[in-house]
Amino acid sequence: CLDSAPGANHTHDTMRTSAAAFLTAAFAALALASSCSIPTASGLAEPVEERPDAVFTGFRREEVKRGVVTFVAEAERAEYFQDRGLLVVYNVSFEDRGEEGGAAEATGQADKVVYHEDTGDAECSGFVQIRSLAEDVTFETTTLNYRSASQTLEGASGDAVVVKVGKKLFIQGSGFFADIQAKAFAFREGASGVIAGASESGASKGEER
Q1: CB 115 within 8 Å of CB 86
Q2: pTM over 0.90
């Protein structure tokens, strides 16, 4: 298989749906790529400074449906720790091309992703960006954790998440939480936003906690 919440909500339901769906697909593809290319093992917590059991470069995974490529995940380097059941992937990028294939509908990238084989959980860190091209929405942060059992996404406490909707709406908040099944997200520690006006008279600012 391996090739070479409750809270403030300032965005449209369509944007929330596409972003949550893309995040789910991104982590699912990463899980599938690791499970079909590396032996199964039980996992513990975070990796320690140790030599990996296997190292891959040019890590790539494609999902093909009805003869068309619908999803692509690539990474510069992947390290597998068998005793811990961990796959650590560096400089990873995702591209969702939709059911019909063709041009990307959504993209994502992360400096580092740690995937846990036993739980299906994953942690993204460094520069993390998820973008829905169809809705012209971008999420940017430094930490994003996916919990498979609850189908939720969480940012680290105190870490800012920036949401950009087009070129006019900017939201920044902390305590980010997303319920993928409910297709909604919120900022538990407060958020503020800026709506750029069409004229040069200034911008409209608001804050909600």
Answers
A1: yes
A2: no
pLDDT in tens, 133-146: 877 888 899 998 98
Round to whole Å and give the CA distance between 78 and 97.
23
Residue 62, token pair as written in the block: 């494609």
